[in-house]
Amino acid sequence: MGGTVAKGPPIYNQEEREGLRAAGRFNAELMDHIRPLVQPGASTLELDGEIFTFTKDHGHTPACLGYAGPSGAPPYPNSSCISINEVVCHGVPSERRLKEGDIVNVDITSIVNGWHGDQSETFMVGAVGAEARRLVQTTFDALWVGIRAIKPFGYVRDIGAAIYKYARDRNFEVVRDYQGHGIGRQFHQEPGVPHFWFPRSKAGSQVIRPGMCFTIEPMLNQGTWKTVADKFDGWTVRTLDNKLSAQFEHTILMTENGPEPLTVTKNGPQEGHKF
Ligand code: MF3
Ligand code: CO
Ligand code: CO
Predict the structure, then answer these.
(1) What's 182-214 look like in SS3?
(2) Peptide bond into 191 cis (omega under 30)
(3) Distance 90 CA to ligand 1 centre (A)
(4) How many whole angstroms separate alpha carbon 18 and alpha carbon 272?
């Protein structure tokens, strides 16, 4: 018989898409639950505990907890990533308390009936500096620029090209060491979704077909795009120059009619939101 070997990112059928929608919806409701708790004085471990409890109380699974690390790193120790100021991503929750002026990204991924939903938001804790605010707003807008850059049978590179131009026009850099990813029955799968693109890049030639599901999750930096992972915990990623970094993420299903963001609720910031 010798059937054709399936290659490339999975294409989900209608039933599978309902599984993805349910996972995205639950994850977004969890973000709704956490959003008001992000306040000066809250510790990141307390927020993570709420994420764990809410997920378990609804019969679901936090995808981060025990997730296999990069080579050399231990399994991820918590239920979420909470990244303050110069931390780009994969901030490990701790006793550290949020304080006025911080910017903090909360990145949550849930497994609902075997399907993953993944999203993050950067919050401004109390009053923050004008440049920090501009970074957060620009990163939020860059995510939506990326979402609006895609169409059925377009290319993955359209996402990075649009985000990169939007960020550089506003004098921010785009992180290159971490990217969006296909998502479904696995947390991270094909296709890789870079948030930058250069005319001679080979990456990004993947066609986005209806039924593909992936995240867009740009990380924008005030200074250099270069990052460094913490030598001790193996996870926490910081900007090389310790300047601020912000990130927003949604899980996106490409349908026959265009992109369908799966992790948006009425309570969260909508496209076009001004912080
Ligand atoms: N949620 C992150 C992402 O957006 C991945 C976190 S992996 C973890 O892809 F193990 F650090 F939780
Ligand atoms: Co995430
Ligand atoms: Co992700």
Answers:
(1) ECCCCCCEEEEECCCCCCCCCCCCCEECCCCEE
(2) yes
(3) 6
(4) 27
Of ligand 1's listed atoms, the one at least distance from the Cα of 188 is 9
121 within ligand 1 shell (Cβ under 6 A):
no
Q: Does ligand 1 lie within 6 Å of residue 193's CB atom? A: no
CA-nearest residue for atom 12, ligand 1, is 64
When the pLDDT of each residue in the chain is averaged and rounded to a whole number, the result is 96
What architecture does CATH give domain 14-257? Alpha-Beta Complex (3.90)
Neighbour count for residue 158 (Cβ, 10 Å) = 17
Taking only the tens place, the pLDDT of each residue in 55-69 is: 999 999 999 999 998
Q: Tell me the two tokens of residue 274.
A: 């001004």
In eight-state DSSP terms, residue 55 is H
Q: What local confidence, expressed as pLDDT, does residue 5 receive? A: 66
Show Cβ contacts of residue 146 under 8 Å, excluding neighbours closer than 6 positions.
159, 160, 162, 163, 195, 216, 218
Do residues 40 and 100 make contact, with C-beta atoms less than 8 angstroms apart? Answer: yes
Taking the model in full, what pTM does it have? 0.97
Q: Give alpha helix (H) positions in the chain.
A: 14-34, 44-57, 130-148, 157-169
The atom number, within ligand 1, closest to the CA of 235 reads: 11
Ligand 1 site, residue 147, Cβ cutoff 6 A: no
Give the domain ranges of the chain. Answer: 14-257
CA distance 90 to 72: 15
Residue 83 has pLDDT above 90, yes or no: yes
Q: Is 107 in the pocket of ligand 1 (CB under 6 A)?
A: yes
Find how far residue 87's CA is from the centre of its chain.
Answer: 14
